[in-house]
Design a protein that fits this description.
mainly alpha, 8 helices, 0% strand, CCHC-type domain-containing protein
Length: 282
């Protein structure tokens, strides 16, 4: 029994201290509200009402006086029962007056502020058209990469060598064309009879000629075996982006397909430009 009384007394003391703290907080809040009270619509000067000057007829002061009198006249057990009942009634009144929870009120205020920033109260927030789609940065990076690739391709296109086709060439008195057999007229690379590298490959294979010197020799002992094609050297040094055009086998420059690929590369550049800039005319 003593334990129960001690426990009740402890709870009662805690409740009294809590209630006193609540009363203190309420007084501070009333003071702040009084200080922050707006001026009257037609008044020229601001005025403040101190808590000490408030009339005893004000409902708030009457309640405080009644509470203090009730506290003095009641016993500890009666006061505890009254405090529990009073707290329950206040919670019910607060729930009825404020049906929204704190979280709901916060969300509602945030929505109202967002709406007022966009276009005023009652309007739906407008979507920001400048906000990029999730895949827009990826698309921009791809487009930028294609533009860079096309720029390199155009730059390399200017270095594509061109085969000089002509019937008569200077300084060919002791040269014989391996494709047409004429002596002292032109080099094999300038022959007007066979102008394409792939056609030259077919010719030497059909006639059993060496792909290094274009003569009828043993390929193992050919003196021109280690010589590099001039067209391939130009591409590897000045236009490495086109290195896929270089054949894997060593060959005489007469058989090189690189000079014949210029129209094909030009068509690829034009096609890529149409994809990158569809509104332009090429």
């Amino acid at each position: 029994m003593e334990f129960e009384m001690t426990r009740v007394e402890k709870i009662l003391n805690e409740e009294k201290a809590c209630f006193a703290e609540i009363k203190k907080m309420l007084k501070c809040m009333e003071k702040k509200v009084t200080e922050l009270a707006p001026q009257g619509r037609y008044s020229d000067t601001a005025y403040e009402i101190e808590p000490a000057e408030m009339s005893p007829d004000i409902p708030g002061n009457t309640e405080e006086r009644e509470d203090s009198e009730r506290t003095e006249s009641q016993s500890d057990d009666e006061y505890l029962a009254w405090l529990i009942e009073e707290s329950g009634e206040r919670d019910e009144q607060t729930t009825e007056q404020n049906p929204l929870s704190i979280d709901d009120e916060t969300v509602t205020k945030e929505r109202e502020m967002a709406n007022s920033e966009v276009g005023g109260c009652g309007q739906e927030p407008m979507e920001d058209e400048s906000t990029p789609a999730p895949n827009e940065p990826v698309q921009k990076n791809r487009t930028r990469g294609r533009q860079m690739e096309n720029g390199k391709l155009e730059h390399s296109f200017n270095y594509l060598p061109k085969r000089k086709i002509q019937e008569f060439t200077k300084n060919t008195a002791f040269s014989r064309c391996s494709l047409c057999g004429r002596q002292g007229k032109h080099f094999s690379d300038s022959c007007p009879r066979i102008t394409r590298g792939f056609d030259g490959w077919d010719f030497i294979e059909d006639n059993g000629l060496c792909r290094h010197c274009l003569e009828d020799c043993s390929q193992k002992g050919c003196s021109n075996r280690s010589d590099n094609c001039w067209y391939c050297e130009v591409i590897l040094k000045k236009a490495p982006i086109l290195r896929s055009l270089v054949p894997q086998k060593y060959h005489h420059r007469t058989l090189c397909p690189i000079p014949d690929s210029k129209p094909e590369i030009a068509a690829s550049i034009k096609k890529m430009k149409k994809k990158l800039f569809p509104s332009r005319h090429y």
